[in-house]
Each structure stands twice: as structure tokens, then as C-alpha cells.
Amino acid sequence: MTQTLKKAPAEIVSEFFAAYRKHDVAGMADLCADNADFHYLPVEIWGKQWVIRGDGKVNGIGRVLWSGLITAFPDLSNEVTSLSSAPDGTVVAEVMLSGRQAGPWGAIGNRGQQFTLPHLFVLHVNSEELIDSITAHWDNASFYRQLGHAEVD
Amino acid sequence: MTAITEAESRTAATAAVLADEFLAAIQRGDLDTAFRSVSPAAEVVIHPAGQAGGAEIARDFFREALAAFPDLMLTVTRRTACSDGRVLIELTFEGTQAADFLGAINQEKHLDVEQAWLLATRDGVITAITGFWDQNKLYRRLAVKRLDRIAIA
Predict the structure, then answer these.
(1) Which of A25, A30, A123, B148 is the least crowded, having the fewest Cβ atoms under 10 Å away?
(2) Overall average pLDDT of the A117-141 stretch
(3) Class of the CATH domain delimited by B6-141
(4) Cβ atoms within 10 A of the Cβ of A153, count?
(5) pLDDT grade, residue B52 (50/70/90)?
């Protein structure tokens, strides 16, 4: 369905990544609907009898992951390299995330390494000009290698 | 007020058809038909494979994938056609390994991994192909233990 909004979905998504650059997690969440869906597909943490996936809500696992990443990479930044909008309010964003590790990230101890990693984000902006869904794709193998972590876990 | 113009909607619709036909041909294993709609000068980047170049890079990738996974199933989970002629295809890449793939030796494991393929189109031709997925998840499914020893089970 085609949307008519005061603010273009791409503009709202640009504000989202600007807030991310400022490490303003509350600001990022404020641009999202209260029950916005969150899918970080590469997040998959395996235990002996369980697996935790990066699926849930922005105001649940989303905020936890964003805050944790900013803590582990205090100079975390992003550069939006392309934005494309669909008539239904979906925005596809190619984003380069980068930062230097200063603390543990999950099972990966801090070796002080720098990473630069291409991401693909798919965000949907609803008729109330709020992001109601965020999906992200990236390659953890490249991320882990750059951090000096060689185990496939 | 922002709104998608009729011309932008037409661009998105045309691009969607092109992307659907491209993927359907790959699914059939008909790479000749699939790549007839790809410009020889297309810019291809397959981030997790560390490959970049022209159309032949993408063709080689799919040729290797079809050979390594003879029962390959590409199940589209979302297709997003954008007003600028770009199309995002999110899919599950699924099959049983029957030959080495991207350095991982064949252990006859079942693979299922989410992928995102961003296609740029112009004037009825695919002009760029960019692939995203988590290679760490792919290696985990194929029983690779370490990123610095991909070919060792």
C-alpha cells in the first residue's frame, strides 16, 4: 500500500542512524513504535540445550543489543551509504558500522581491534511515522576475524 | 506531504518483475536465462564470500552453489521493490551439501541460512548485485569449527 506522510520514511530512517551515531539509544527507540519488531538475523548464541536468537522487540532485545554494542565499542559509528524506499514505507539501508573494541562482546574478549563491517538494514515506517520493524543482515565471520576471534561459535 | 509518484511506482513494479524472473531462473538452475537480464558491466559485491567484480562473479557463485547443493531451495521470505529501481530479495538458502563450498569441505550437512540480495535495475537490466548473509552461521551449519581453518573438519 502506498503511504502519504509528512516526513519521508527515508528521512525518519536517516534520523534513526543519526541517533545511533550519537549513541542515543533512547532517541533510536523513540523513532520506533512501542511494539516495533526486531530481527538481527546473524545473532544466534548456542548453549548446550538452548539457542538465543536476535528476534524480538526493539524495546526488548533491541535496546539491549544496541546498548551492549556501544559499551563494547565506545567509538561505534555508522555511515549510511545508500537508502532506497518502497511505496509501502519500507526503507532499505546499506550502512557501514565501525568501531574499536574496548570491552568484551559476548564471548569475544577485548583485543582492542578495530572493525568496519557492511550491514543491510530493512526498516518499515508506519502511517504514524514510526519505525515498526527493523531487520539487519551482516557477516559475523568478517566481524569475528577483524576482532581476532577465530572460533565459529 | 511526501508521496510516491506514479512513475516511481511503475519503476518499482518493473524492477520487481525483473528480480522475480532472475531468481526463478536461478532456482531452476538456468543460469543462462538468469544472467541474460544482467548487464555485462554489472557491479557485483558478495560481502560474505569476499568477492567483487563483474557479472561473472555472481554467475560463478550461483554455479558453485547449485553444484554444492543439488537440492538447493531458495525460499523468498520478503521481496521489496523500491522506487529507484532497486529490489531487495530476502530468502532462505537451503540444501544438503554434496561438494565443497566456499572453502568448506563436504560433510553432507544440511544448510539453511538467511540471505539478502540487493539488485539494482535500470531500463529492464540488472546493473548491480550485492549479497549479504552471515558466513559464520553458514560455517556453523557446515560443521566448520574455526575461521582460520575453514577446510578442516
Answers:
(1) B148
(2) 98
(3) alpha beta
(4) 16
(5) very high
Neighbours of A23 (CB within 10 A): 18
Residue (of A103, A150, A117) closest to A40 by Cα position: A117
Q: Which of B79, B80, B92, B122 to mutate to probe the A interface, most A CBs <10 Å? A: B80
What does the domain layout of chain B look like in residue ranges?
6-141
Q: Which residue is listed with cell 522487540?
A: A57
β A114-125/A51-57 pair status: unpaired
Name which of A117, A151, A152 is nearest A137 in CA terms: A117
Report how many helices (DSSP H) and strands (DSSP E) chain A contains, helices first.
Answer: 4, 7
Q: pLDDT digit string (tens) for B66-83? A: 999 999 999 999 999 999
Confirm if B104 and B132 have CB atoms less than 8 A apart. no
| CB neighbour class for B152 (10 Å; exposed up to 12, middle 13-18, buried from 19) | exposed
Name the grid cell of B88: 531487495
C-alpha cell recorded at residue A121? 538494514
Q: Where do the domains of chain A lie, and which CATH numbers do they carry? A: 9-147 (3.10.450.50)
Q: Is the ipTM of this complex over 0.90?
A: yes
Is B48 in contact with A142 (Cβ distance < 8 A)?
yes
Cβ-proximal residues to B138 (8 Å cutoff; 6+ apart), any chain: A141, B48, B102, B104, B111, B113
H or E stretch including B111? strand B110-122
Query: Choosing among A137, A146, A151, which should be mutated to test the B contact, i.e. which has the most B CBs within 10 A?
Result: A137
Q: Are A3 and A122 in contact (CB under 8 A)?
A: no
Find, among A40, A130, A29, A113, the residue nearest to A75 by Cα.
A113
Whether pTM > 0.90 for this model: the answer is: yes
